[in-house]
Specification:
Largest sheet: none
Number of strands: 0
Strand content: under 5%
Order of helices and strands: HHHHHHHHHHHHH
Structural class: mainly alpha
Radius of gyration: 19 Å
Shape: globular
Helix content: over 70%
Number of helices: 13
Length: 298
């Protein structure tokens, strides 16, 4: 279980580094997102064919696939790519830790009846205070005077919010669809949406450097397909709460990878903001975990 969790977290955590490598090789943002999504679709389809899985049936599967394709693939791919033009991979990696906090905040206003508790609210305040510190500090993780943490933070929060909304919808319809079949719809539709944006904003595809294609292939395989499959497997072995521990692993991986591979900077604003975010996540996570039953002594 832990091997699967670490591999999946490593793939997600290093996605920002691969994205910045592609951007540094002059791949434009919407083309980058479209290439990544298209390559991921090819891999997902190949996997479904090898497993001899056809298209899912049922209205619920298609509804969830459409929502997830928009909120958990197209929007995050675009927002993340745009954000990484203005900040380092470590900066954005810390934003992923906000997903459970944002999900808790959005869930309060949904029919799921998951109301905010006092510890969760305190966690939210701490987490978003961390975001404010990072944005106001002017530290982007890049060289001095380079980057725009406010703009990167805006795009990052857009990605986090979109993922939270999609995840809550999928949870609301849980039990009505087959996850791996929905993943096929999600990736195909997400790729179509992103390609549409690419054609409107940047035009058609063009020749890209080999280094860029290497980074894109890595993202499609190691940052998209492999983590997705590992997490479907994890959910058959452990609880969703246990699987969510990956949220603590991904940000440190993103920070370390950014420093080692891209020579990014671990600046004071990022450190202080990251600490506040992690305190917020820990508070919210503790509040959501069911109390352990104490066995009475005979």
């Amino acid at each position: 279980v832990w091997v699967a969790m670490v591999i999946a977290s490593f793939g997600w955590g290093t996605a920002g580094v691969a994205t910045r490598i592609a951007l540094d090789n002059d791949v434009t943002p919407y083309r980058l997102a479209a290439y990544r999504a298209s390559l991921t679709v090819v891999l997902v389809v190949l996997y479904l064919l090898l497993r001899r899985r056809g298209l899912p049936r049922g209205e619920a599967s298609w509804k969830v696939g459409v929502v997830m394709g928009t909120t958990n693939l197209a929007a995050p791919f675009i927002f993340t790519t745009l954000a990484l033009q203005h900040a380092g991979a470590g900066f954005l990696g810390l934003m992923t830790a906000l997903i459970p906090l944002m999900t808790a905040a959005v869930a309060h206003f949904t029919p799921l009846e998951e109301r905010l508790t006092v510890p969760t609210t305190v966690g939210l305040l701490s987490g978003f205070s961390g975001v404010a510190v990072r944005l106001l500090s002017g530290d982007s993780g890049l060289a001095e005077g380079v980057g725009d943490p406010v703009l990167a933070g805006f795009y990052g929060l857009g990605s986090v919010t979109s993922i939270s909304i999609g995840s809550l919808y999928a949870k609301y319809r849980a039990g009505e669809y087959e996850p791996i079949g929905v993943a096929g719809i999600q990736h195909a539709l997400g790729a179509v949406i992103i390609i549409g944006f690419m054609l409107v904003v940047e035009g058609g595809p063009r020749a890209e450097p080999a280094a860029a294609w290497g980074a894109l292939g890595y993202m499609a395989l190691m940052s998209s397909l492999v983590p997705m499959l590992l997490y479907y497997w994890l959910y058959t072995k452990v609880s969703a709460t246990y699987a969510s521990l990956a949220g603590y692993i991904i940000p440190p991986i993103a920070i370390i990878a950014g420093v080692l591979v891209l020579d990014e900077r671990l600046q004071p604003g990022i450190i202080l903001g990251g600490i506040l975010i992690f305190v917020g996540v820990l508070l919210a996570d503790r509040a959501e975990r069911p109390p352990r039953q104490v066995r009475a002594n005979a």
